[in-house]
Amino acid sequence: MRSHIQTMNAKTWLLVIVLSVIWGGSFFFFKILLVELPPLTIVMARVMIASLALVAYLRLSGQSLPKDSRVWRAFFTLALMNNVVPFTLIVWSEIHITSGLAAVLNATVPVFSVILAHFFANEPLRPNRVAGILLSLLGVVILIGPSALRGLNLTSLAQIAVLFSAFLYSCAALYAQRFKAMQISPVVVSAGQLMAASVIMLPLGLLVDRPWTFAHAPSLVTWSALLGLALLSTAVAYVMYFRILAVAGATNSVLVTFLIPVSALLLGTLVLKERLAALDFVGILVIFVGLVILDGRVFQMFRRRGEEGQPISSA
After folding, report:
1. Are 21 and 74 in contact (CB under 8 A)?
2. Is 256 left (phi over 0), alpha (psi -120 to 50) or beta?
3. Burial class for 227, CB neighbours closer than 10 Å (0-12, 13-18, 19+)
């Protein structure tokens, strides 16, 4: 059986970089939101606002959501794997572990994806892909700081929760490829997934957090952060993500996980005037070298040049 590892062109790499900036910026929104709102309320509002925005966009653009029950079962399955369970587990885990350790554990998404894609998506474990992903993961550890691993203890439920979330994200990337075969556009997949997540999160958020009992209404700053998280870091981000998934495959689509810490760090430098340490530059360099190795085109270029330079033997 032929393998079908997909490579990314410059346009797709640009989408990955922009998506990493958008998702990296979500950390700023969470810092603001957690001051006034509990985790489940944030997740509930995030998916509901994002789904309403995308449904409105579909209406304005003359598109519509599918009515096939088979497609909606797939939307609900994807919502559980890609939104409801990982969103909730990660927010809960950060009450018990540092955000740095959570980020390192979350960066294992491509590791799971490469393994799963080898067995279920006919994307073989080539040496450059394994080396590139492990090197990029090392870069994330360097970037966030090796001290983040001091609390590593895989008997901790919070840490297992983040790893399980990373595993679910990689499963979701593989599962979502079926929508391409169904000829469903990335915008419709995003809207359907988020609508399904809203149906699940609405009763859960109301039952657990009981937002009508909050002592104070959210401030204007909180509402602004919530809209930013829902519209930019969720609605727009998922349209981009499913576009990358459709053209580049499951493993390539989750490489954004490696770039999110880079984007968050650079945004902190530009917006919050935080200073970069020498180790930060090393981590960023290691991540990008890992991605270059994983992409593989540099090696293909040198291989072609080597073949072109070989002398032609006479018969």
Report:
1. no
2. alpha
3. middle
Q: Where are the alpha helices (DSSP H) in the chain?
A: 10-33, 39-60, 69-79, 85-93, 99-106, 109-120, 127-144, 157-175, 178-181, 186-209, 220-227, 237-253, 256-271, 278-295, 297-308
Distance (Å) of CA 274 to CA 19, 36, 101, 188, 266: 22, 25, 20, 39, 9
* Residues in CB range of 168: below 8 A, 6 or more apart: 81, 82, 85, 86
Integer Cα distance of 288 and 261 in angstroms: 12
DSSP-derived secondary structure for 184-225: --HHHHHHHHHHHHHHHHHHHHHHHH-GGG-SSPPPHHHHHH
Q: Which amino acid, one-letter code, is at 154?
A: L
Closest by CA to 227, choosing from 74, 47, 49, is 49
Residue-level length of the chain: 315
CB atoms within 10 A of CB 289: 15
Q: How far apart are the first and last CA of the chain?
A: 35
Cα→Cα distances 231→34, 228, 235, 272, Å: 18, 5, 5, 22
CA distance 134 to 294: 10
Dihedral over alpha carbons 38, 41, 46, 51 (to 10 degrees): 170
pLDDT of 254-302, one tens digit each? 888 888 888 877 777 776 666 777 888 888 888 888 888 877 665 565 5
Amino acid at 208: V
Separation of alpha carbons 38 and 201, rounded Å: 13
Distances (CA, A) of 281 to 76, 174, 250, 284: 41, 32, 28, 5
Q: What is the pTM of this model?
A: 0.82
> Which candidate, 270, 14, 290, 30, places its Cα nearest to that of 142?
290
Q: Does residue 313 have a pLDDT over 50? A: no
